[in-house]
């Protein structure tokens, strides 16, 4: 099994290479099947790893080759499959495979299918490389690779300037985080002279004291990288615009996998974060604020995909909250269930939008569009799981687990209240969308039936959105808690408050989604009569973050430029004028006395000398190739002779 | 086993021969051939040295050199062809565009 590990990221990357090099000879069908087969190969290898007991045994390891060898520093292309990686790899390859299958039908009418599948496969390979890497350098390679693919796929329809600029915005915004991550990695390397993760963790726990300043700085740098990639405040502005890409891309990259890379990174580096409670608290606080930000902004959106984008921001906030409170296992748990229900929602939204002539507005989709029963059902399942409807959905179990472990953390009560409020708002916005879309839409008579290739991924994801939660029942419930016990060796156990408190918290948190659905019903009824939410413009623009950045960053830069220009015109121009006048006076004085007498004669002499030299030299520059070769030879012989004797 | 000195003498001969071709011939194609001969001399040195030290690097270098030479020759042939098309000549003597013309004065 160790020897097969390279296939997991290798198969998609190889297929991407084939598509980009030989794709011109292939038809759409072949390229699509090839890409899907590569994704399937990766997924089957992961399944094989499960069957061979990777879940219980020691971590699998394979060193593909030594990447660089500089002195005693030898970063390898080494893969490591432990339990954290296993979770990530399963989700990424599984959801990736489903989305490849879905894309076959979705992209059938697009002409740029070759570019699409190249980047989709490359993304899958990069993401798998990221989560399998056993050293930080390789992890960073995967990190940049997914960033590149994300940029290319957001701007996939680049002929539309808005979409192209959305791609650039995503790239540049995440770059800020990437830079910080790179600095963090440099810092670790300069301290420990290694980037291999297991060695690094040993060294960190041995050499760095808890609360040491260096540990805090490094942790913060890595955290900033995660913030950029996972679209948390203040670097979240790129994600809503990223919805310019095709819907399967939004589902794969901007909901299920790439944006959760930050969560994976922090969970992976948790020995470092546990040394610095302050940074850890910052993680939780950023997560909590982002929950509220995303949920409230989603409340006022009219674009179906933007609702889901803000919802992704807010759900990743839950994961960060869990990470900050030390409940790494539950963060990963929510990551998994979120991957299922959010990609389900995105794929359903993509199918609805495609069936209705690319109409994005939920009001118009609701009043004019026809939706098949299948879409209705799938969206309902996804929405219920996102809202966390008690007991029957996967989203409930993961969110509940996070909420109970938040309570005992430092300032946990406050964080809990924010997160619970987030749950309520989540339920309101997603059911508002659901009611607006489906409440009195026409029956699907006119629209074409959904392609069968698109239906199967939806079914599987819907099934998983319901059942994936049953592996981990909330604390104090009579049910299995497989997830947290399985990950105990990696992360340790999360702390729970006393059981009585747990029950009260659970009761409140499970009533909130139902309450939210009720509020949403009333809200939609009032919205149809023209009622608008208070502050709806503010919320729709995502708390005006974009406008603020424009004023503060872009405006500030322009202000600075204007300031410099003013200085230039005042100071330098004035000085130059004075200097020019002075020189003029000086020059007229010189001219009369000096120029005619001395300079003219001297210059004439010099000029004739130079002319003579030029005439002599230019005989050498005769343009004859053979003469030049002779010169070169003579020079070489002369130099050789000089060196030898 | 051929002694090292023999191979080196042959290589030096090849190199000199190529050099002489370049310096004496006036036809662009012959000059390119002279270049090839010089390359062969250099490659022969690499192989001889590799044989002398029983090291495969010399052969690797030669194969690499052959590939690079082929690529370079392709470009050179295109240039010769372009010269013929534009200036209607392939003699090196007639290509004097770079000649400094003193009558025009300094550039």
UniProtKB/TrEMBL annotation, chain A:
<dbReference type="Pfam" id="PF00361">
    <property type="entry name" value="Proton_antipo_M"/>
</dbReference>
<feature type="transmembrane region" description="Helical">
    <location>
        <begin position="307"/>
        <end position="329"/>
    </location>
</feature>
<keyword id="KW-0472">Membrane</keyword>
<feature type="transmembrane region" description="Helical">
    <location>
        <begin position="31"/>
        <end position="51"/>
    </location>
</feature>
<protein>
    <submittedName>
        <fullName>NADH dehydrogenase subunit L</fullName>
    </submittedName>
</protein>
<feature type="transmembrane region" description="Helical">
    <location>
        <begin position="414"/>
        <end position="435"/>
    </location>
</feature>
<feature type="transmembrane region" description="Helical">
    <location>
        <begin position="116"/>
        <end position="133"/>
    </location>
</feature>
<dbReference type="GO" id="GO:0016020">
    <property type="term" value="C:membrane"/>
</dbReference>
<feature type="domain" description="NADH:quinone oxidoreductase/Mrp antiporter transmembrane">
    <location>
        <begin position="133"/>
        <end position="417"/>
    </location>
</feature>
<feature type="domain" description="NADH-Ubiquinone oxidoreductase (complex I) chain 5 N-terminal">
    <location>
        <begin position="67"/>
        <end position="117"/>
    </location>
</feature>
<dbReference type="GO" id="GO:0012505">
    <property type="term" value="C:endomembrane system"/>
</dbReference>
<feature type="transmembrane region" description="Helical">
    <location>
        <begin position="243"/>
        <end position="266"/>
    </location>
</feature>
<dbReference type="GO" id="GO:0008137">
    <property type="term" value="F:NADH dehydrogenase (ubiquinone) activity"/>
</dbReference>
<feature type="transmembrane region" description="Helical">
    <location>
        <begin position="6"/>
        <end position="26"/>
    </location>
</feature>
<dbReference type="GO" id="GO:0003954">
    <property type="term" value="F:NADH dehydrogenase activity"/>
</dbReference>
<keyword id="KW-1133">Transmembrane helix</keyword>
<feature type="transmembrane region" description="Helical">
    <location>
        <begin position="84"/>
        <end position="104"/>
    </location>
</feature>
<feature type="transmembrane region" description="Helical">
    <location>
        <begin position="373"/>
        <end position="394"/>
    </location>
</feature>
<dbReference type="Pfam" id="PF00662">
    <property type="entry name" value="Proton_antipo_N"/>
</dbReference>
<feature type="transmembrane region" description="Helical">
    <location>
        <begin position="179"/>
        <end position="201"/>
    </location>
</feature>
<feature type="transmembrane region" description="Helical">
    <location>
        <begin position="503"/>
        <end position="524"/>
    </location>
</feature>
<feature type="transmembrane region" description="Helical">
    <location>
        <begin position="139"/>
        <end position="158"/>
    </location>
</feature>
TrEMBL record, chain B:
<dbReference type="GO" id="GO:0048038">
    <property type="term" value="F:quinone binding"/>
</dbReference>
<keyword id="KW-1278">Translocase</keyword>
<keyword id="KW-1133">Transmembrane helix</keyword>
<comment type="function">
    <text>NDH-1 shuttles electrons from NADH, via FMN and iron-sulfur (Fe-S) centers, to quinones in the respiratory chain. The immediate electron acceptor for the enzyme in this species is believed to be ubiquinone. Couples the redox reaction to proton translocation (for every two electrons transferred, four hydrogen ions are translocated across the cytoplasmic membrane), and thus conserves the redox energy in a proton gradient.</text>
</comment>
<feature type="transmembrane region" description="Helical">
    <location>
        <begin position="60"/>
        <end position="84"/>
    </location>
</feature>
<keyword id="KW-1003">Cell membrane</keyword>
<keyword id="KW-0812">Transmembrane</keyword>
<protein>
    <recommendedName>
        <fullName>NADH-quinone oxidoreductase subunit K</fullName>
        <ecNumber>7.1.1.-</ecNumber>
    </recommendedName>
</protein>
<dbReference type="InterPro" id="IPR001133">
    <property type="entry name" value="NADH_UbQ_OxRdtase_chain4L/K"/>
</dbReference>
<dbReference type="GO" id="GO:0030964">
    <property type="term" value="C:NADH dehydrogenase complex"/>
</dbReference>
<keyword id="KW-0472">Membrane</keyword>
<feature type="transmembrane region" description="Helical">
    <location>
        <begin position="6"/>
        <end position="24"/>
    </location>
</feature>
<dbReference type="GO" id="GO:0050136">
    <property type="term" value="F:NADH dehydrogenase (quinone) (non-electrogenic) activity"/>
</dbReference>
<comment type="similarity">
    <text>Belongs to the complex I subunit 4L family.</text>
</comment>
<keyword id="KW-0874">Quinone</keyword>
<dbReference type="Pfam" id="PF00420">
    <property type="entry name" value="Oxidored_q2"/>
</dbReference>
<feature type="transmembrane region" description="Helical">
    <location>
        <begin position="31"/>
        <end position="54"/>
    </location>
</feature>
<dbReference type="GO" id="GO:0005886">
    <property type="term" value="C:plasma membrane"/>
</dbReference>
<keyword id="KW-0813">Transport</keyword>
<keyword id="KW-0830">Ubiquinone</keyword>
<dbReference type="InterPro" id="IPR039428">
    <property type="entry name" value="NUOK/Mnh_C1-like"/>
</dbReference>
<dbReference type="GO" id="GO:0042773">
    <property type="term" value="P:ATP synthesis coupled electron transport"/>
</dbReference>
């Amino acid at each position: 099994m160790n020897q097969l590990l390279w296939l997991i990221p290798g198969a998609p990357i190889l297929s991407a290479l084939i598509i980009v090099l030989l794709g011109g000879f292939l038809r759409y069908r072949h390229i699509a099947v090839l890409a899907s087969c590569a994704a399937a190969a990766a997924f089957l290898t992961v399944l094989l790893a499960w069957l061979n007991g990777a879940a219980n045994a020691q971590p699998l390891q394979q060193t593909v080759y030594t990447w660089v060898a500089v002195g005693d520093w030898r970063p390898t292309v080494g893969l490591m499959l432990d339990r954290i990686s296993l979770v990530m790899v399963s989700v990424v390859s599984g959801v990736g495979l489903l989305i490849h299958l879905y894309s076959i039908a979705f992209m059938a009418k697009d002409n740029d299918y070759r570019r699409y599948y190249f980047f989709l496969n490359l993304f899958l390979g990069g993401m798998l490389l990221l989560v399998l890497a056993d050293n930080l350098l390789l992890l960073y390679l995967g990190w940049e690779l997914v960033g590149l693919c994300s940029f290319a796929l957001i701007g996939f329809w680049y002929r539309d300037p808005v979409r192209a600029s959305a791609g650039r915005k995503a790239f540049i915004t995440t770059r800020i985080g990437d830079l910080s991550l790179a600095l963090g990695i440099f810092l670790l390397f300069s301290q420990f002279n290694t980037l291999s993760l297991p060695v690094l963790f040993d060294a960190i726990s041995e050499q760095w004291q808890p609360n040491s300043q260096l540990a805090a700085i490094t942790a913060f740098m890595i955290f900033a990288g995660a913030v950029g990639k996972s679209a948390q405040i203040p670097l979240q502005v790129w994600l809503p615009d990223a919805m310019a890409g095709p819907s399967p891309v939004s589902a794969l990259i901007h909901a299920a996998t790439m944006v959760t890379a930050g969560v994976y990174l922090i969970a992976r580096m948790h020995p470092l974060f546990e040394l610095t409670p302050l940074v850890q608290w910052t993680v939780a606080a950023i997560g909590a604020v982002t929950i509220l930000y995303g949920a409230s902004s989603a409340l006022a959106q009219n674009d179906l995909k933007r609702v889901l984008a803000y919802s992704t921001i807010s759900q990743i906030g839950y994961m960060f909250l869990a990470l900050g409170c030390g409940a790494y296992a539950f963060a990963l748990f929510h990551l998994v269930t979120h991957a299922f229900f959010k990609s389900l929602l995105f794929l359903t939204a993509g199918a609805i939008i495609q069936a209705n002539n690319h109409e994005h507005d939920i009001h118009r989709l609701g009043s004019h569009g026809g939706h098949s029963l299948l879409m209705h059902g799938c969206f309902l399942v996804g929405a219920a799981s996102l809202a966390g409807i008690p007991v029957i959905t996967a989203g409930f179990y993961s969110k509940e687990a996070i909420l109970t472990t938040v309570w005992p953390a430092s300032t946990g009560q406050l964080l809990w209240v924010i997160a619970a409020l987030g749950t309520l708002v989540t339920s309101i916005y997603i059911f508002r969308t659901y009611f607006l879309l489906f409440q009195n839409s026409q029956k699907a008579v006119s629209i074409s039936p959904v392609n069968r290739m698109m239906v199967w991924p939806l079914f599987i994801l819907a099934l998983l959105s319901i059942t994936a939660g049953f592996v981990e029942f909330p604390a104090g419930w009579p049910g299995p808690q497989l997830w947290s016990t399985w990950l105990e060796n990696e992360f340790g156990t999360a702390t729970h408050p006393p059981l009585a408190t747990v029950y009260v918290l659970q009761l409140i948190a499970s009533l909130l989604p139902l309450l939210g659905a009720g509020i949403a019903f009333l809200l939609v009824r009032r919205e149809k009569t023209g009622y608008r939410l208070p502050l709806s413009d503010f919320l729709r623009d995502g708390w005006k973050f974009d406008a603020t950045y424009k004023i503060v960053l872009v405006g500030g830069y322009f202000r600075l430029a204007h300031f410099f220009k003013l200085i230039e015109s005042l100071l330098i121009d004035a000085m130059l004028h004075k200097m020019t006048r002075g020189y003029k006076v000086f020059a007229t004085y010189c001219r009369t006395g000096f120029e005619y007498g001395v300079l003219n004669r001297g210059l004439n002499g010099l000029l004739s000398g130079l002319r003579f030299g030029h005439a002599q030299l230019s005989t050498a520059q005769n343009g004859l190739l053979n003469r030049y070769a002779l010169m070169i030879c003579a020079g070489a012989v002369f130099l050789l002779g000089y060196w030898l004797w | 086993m051929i002694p090292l000195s023999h191979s080196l003498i042959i290589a030096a001969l090849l190199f000199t021969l190529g050099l002489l071709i370049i310096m004496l011939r006036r036809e662009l194609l012959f000059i390119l051939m002279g270049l090839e001969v010089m390359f062969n001399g250099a490659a022969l040195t690499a192989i001889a040295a590799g044989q002398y030290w029983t090291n495969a690097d010399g052969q690797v270098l030669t194969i690499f050199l052959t590939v690079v030479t082929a690529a370079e020759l392709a470009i050179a042939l295109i240039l010769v062809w372009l010269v013929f098309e534009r200036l209607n000549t392939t003699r090196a003597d007639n290509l004097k565009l770079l000649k400094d013309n003193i009558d025009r004065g300094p550039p």
